[in-house]
Each structure stands twice: as C-alpha cells, then as structure tokens.
Amino acid sequence: MKDLRRCLIGVAAGFFIFNLVFIPALNAEEKVNSKPFGIVIHGGAGYMQKERMPAEKDQQYRRKLEEALRAGYAILEKGGSSLDAVETAVRILEDCPLFNAGKGAVFTSAGTNELDSSIMEGKGLKAGAAAGIKHIQNPISLARLVMERSGHVMLTGEGAETFAKEMGIPLVEEKYFFTEERWKSLQEEQKREKEAAQKKDDENSNKCGTVGAAALDKEGNLAAGTSTGGMTNKKYGRVGDSPIIGAGTYANNRTCAVSSTGYGEYFIRLAAAYDISALMEYKGLSLEAAASLVMEKINRLGGYGGVIAIDSNGKIAMPFTTGGMFRGYLGNDGKIVIKIYKDE
Amino acid sequence: MKDLRRCLIGVAAGFFIFNLVFIPALNAEEKVNSKPFGIVIHGGAGYMQKERMPAEKDQQYRRKLEEALRAGYAILEKGGSSLDAVETAVRILEDCPLFNAGKGAVFTSAGTNELDSSIMEGKGLKAGAAAGIKHIQNPISLARLVMERSGHVMLTGEGAETFAKEMGIPLVEEKYFFTEERWKSLQEEQKREKEAAQKKDDENSNKCGTVGAAALDKEGNLAAGTSTGGMTNKKYGRVGDSPIIGAGTYANNRTCAVSSTGYGEYFIRLAAAYDISALMEYKGLSLEAAASLVMEKINRLGGYGGVIAIDSNGKIAMPFTTGGMFRGYLGNDGKIVIKIYKDE
Lengths: 344, 344
Description:
homodimer; 344 residues; alpha+beta; Glutamine Phosphoribosylpyrophosphate, subunit 1, domain 1; eight-stranded mixed β-sheet; four-stranded antiparallel β-sheet; 9 helices; 13 strands; 40% helix; globular
C-alpha cells in the first residue's frame, strides 16, 4: 500500500514535472521554429562566365559561400542576432583571398589597398561605416564598432584607424592585403588603361567585386552589411557605394535588409539600397518587385551590378544585371542555395 | 488718293510687321515668364535665439543670405542653369566667415579644418561629392568638377585634392580657413567636453552649421548643393551627411531638390534628402508634406536639423526642428524672403 502510494506520488510528480518543464519547452521550440529567419549573401556581381571559369575555382567559390552561409545560419538558428550573423558571414568572405574585400582587396592606382565597409540594423536604424582604411583586417567589424561605440555613422581614413586602435582592434601591416592575383590585375588594368579608354562592359570582374550579407533573426530584426576593396586601379580616394548607408547597405525592420554590389556610382545616385525599402514601404511592392525595379533603374541609367535582400518575412531576392553574381541563401527550411552564373 | 493708298499700305505693312515681330516676342516673353523658377538657400540650422543674437550680427547674416539669393536668382532669371545658380549661391556663403563652410569652417579636434561638399542635378541624376578636403577654397566647385569630370561620385582626402590640382583648382594654405571665432569655439568645445558629456540640445550652433542651396531653372531642371566644415571638435575623420548623396543632397526633376543641415548622422540613417523625393514620387505627397514628414522622422529618432527644398513647380519648403535656421528664397514673383528664427 505504502509502495503503491509512493508509486502514485512518483507518477503524479513526474507528470507534473513533465508538464512544467517539457511541454512549455516543446511549445517554445515550436513557436521559435515557426518564426521566419534566414541569411542571404553575395561575393560580388561581375562578368563571370561558366565556360571561362576553371572547375576548381568554381568549387572554391561555392565552398566559401557555403561556409559563410552556414556560419551565419548557425547563429540565427540558435536565436542569435541578425547583426551577429551578418558580421560573421562577411568576416569569412573578407578573410578569403577570392573576394574583393579584406584579404583579397584589389589595389588602387598607387598600389595600395583602401577598404570600405558599412553595417546597419533595422530595429533602431543604427548604422556604421568606415571608408578608405588601410590596416584593418576585418572592415565589417570596424563598421560595427563605429555604429555601436563612436557616436557617428561614418569614419574615414587615418581617423577611422585611430578609432579602431582605441577600440582595441589590432592594425595589420599593409602587406597583409597583398595577393599575387590582385597585383597582376592592377598591372593588367593599368596596361589596358594606357591602351584604351575603360570599357563599361569590361570582363574584368575585379571592377565590382564586393561582399555582403543580409539577415533576419528570430526576433524579427533585420540587418545588412557590405565590405569591399573598391575598384582595381581606383584613383583620388574614390569612394563607391559600399560605405554609403542608403546606397550600398540599408536595413529597416518594417521592410527589408539590402546589400549592393556593382558600379557603385550608380547605386549612390539612385540611393539604391534605401530605394528598395522605400518602394516596399510607400508603394506596397513586394521585396522581389522592389529589388528588380531598382536594378532596372540602375540598368537604364547605364550602370550595372546586383543586390541581395531579405524582407521581414524571410523572403529573399537576388536580382542582378551582370553575367553572374556570387550569391546564396539559407532560410529556416534549412535548404541551402548557392549560385554563380545567370543561367542557373 | 495716292497719299491715302500709300497711307493704307503703310498701315497694313506696319500691322503685318507688328504681328510678325512683336506678338511672337511678347508671347515668348510671357511664356518664359510663366515658367516657374526659383532658389532657396540655408546657412545652417541651430539653436540661435533672437534675444541672444546681436542686432548687427543678425543684419550681417541677412545681408549675406540676400546676396547669395540675388546672385543665384540673377542666373536663373537670365535663363541660366539651376546648377550654376546653386554653385554661385553656395560659393558666396562659403566665402563668408559667418557660416560653417569654406572660409568659416569649424575646427576638428586636431585643430585642422576638414571640409565636405556635394552637388546633384535632377535631369540626369548626376552627382559629385568631396569629403575630408583641407586646401580647397570652394568645396562646392570641387564637388561639381567631381560630378562633371572625374567619372566618380565621391572623392576623399588627399586623393580629392590631387584631382582638384589636375583640374586646375588652386590649393589654398590651411591657414586660409583660420578664423578667430571658430578657433575659440574649438577651445570652448574642448573645455566643455572635458567638463561634461555633450548635450544634444547644446546651444552651440557651430555643431550643425552648414550651407546649401536648391534651385529650379526655366528649363525645368532642378539642382541642389551642400557644403560644410563639419562639427566643431570632430574626431576620427568623421563624415556627416553633407557629402552623402541621398542624405545631405538630392535632386530629381520628377520631384524636388533638397539640401539638409543638422545632426548629420540622423540624416544618413534615414536617407533624408532622398526620402523627401521618394515620398513625393511613391506616395504622391506634396513637397511641404514630404519635407515635414522627414523632419518628423529625424525628430522621432532623436536627431535635429532642417532641410530646404524646391519642387518642379517652384514650390518651396524649409522645415526645421531647431530654434532657428538661416534661410531664404526668391522665386519668379521676385519677392525675397529671409528668415533666421522659428517665430518669424
């Protein structure tokens, strides 16, 4: 009898504990899983063609894009922030010499590397950017520090690096950014420039390589970030759209998060990244329609490039006007998509 | 009889010639006059108060604003371009030590002067900007050269000055920008910063002084330009909204031309100048409603400042959230309006 009572109490207690601990946990997990989240990235738009890309290099690009996507996704899946996901994904691309950002930055006409970056979060519309930096291994992380710690949005040149130093970011030597391939590109570009005026439809994809990411986290917060080495052989401290909030990067929880790549001047003149947000907010366009319309505008004006974007429901858009764009996404259905060329 | 015939022929010929020559001329003149045109300018938004402004200084500001307006207007009246009108008006304000742009630029924390500017035209959406320049007397003219001659939109620092030199713009020595008043402002600001954290509602109007102009010409072309010395005591190569197309300056013939002044970081985060254009184009708002809504957004986010804007019909808007804004306009009715404080 005593045993039976003990047993019943044990069962009741067990049932109680089960209800107390597991059912809410299951519910919570179900609830969290039902919330859309995802990440989309790019490694630059350009005139890459399948038939001219060595198979091994094609695979290297895809592997690195997958690594960046999975790293960002892992953060989102665990309930981490879209800002962390974006920063992490962009850092991976910055550290890879294949892309024109961080380690793989192209050379200016003076033979130096000058990097630009920006980041924005869509909840409070906070943003940070750094332009013309020469000694920062991961410009995207400096942009985030500018956003969170500087009281400003955009810092440039030596001043930006002084700030980085004060924040404890180690400065790297300029030679860190030296890669044989980019150096050759500079020589070729300078030779070509001597021979002829620059052609718009130049096949040299180094001209507009850039990396970027946009993400939606389980809290419904959007974020986007962009990082670049600029244009091969660029002169005069030229700044493109990458560090320009509204042109290269934008995020607003009410609409979407966007990162641009391409002929930056056109993206600035059209306030391209913000324009996608404005078309959604003011005209009620879908993300896909808004992003495509902005790329049409870029095209009509004589520019080229692409954008990646994610909206507050986790929908993805990746329109571009060039022969290809290194791109991919991973949403909460867990299916990864990675593409390079137009016709895939 | 012969005399009568001669007389009649003379009258008929006279009438014919009158019709042929004068009536089309009158019509043409009427037609030209009926085309709206106009110019609106600002000399910065800030916390200026009537009771604290010496009467003589109040008059100096008004006289200079009038000079700039009349110079821009004269160009428009003769059928000149809005770009010329904007550049001319801004140059006059840049040359005057009263305003925080050109000659009167404030000092950075390092005791230097670093100037930013931008310009845009609304027909082809061409734009130019220069940031962090130290040796250019009229930054607005450099921005225009960047737009017309560089193939880029934004040049920064020494690179921008190398380009200026190649374009034949003489570099001035840094001491050109030394003004006793701005130097004192720096000392005061640095003292204040030591004593306490910066207050948002600081009465020091040097914080957001900037100059700008927007104009509509008889051809229906809009243009806008902005020029600034930045924030007193600014650090780290900070760049505000003035050289950012979409934030500090925007122009589109379909909508309006805008120049911003104020706490630049907020104008960047909201893509403020472009947002006014987007609200008109996508939501059908009037210039006045669009400009006021954007200033409301700036205010809600915690920022402050103002904008001047003119639309494709010559309508003017000059909303601001601060105690005052040096501002004025002159349209084709020929009536000049110049204001400083909120309540006038």
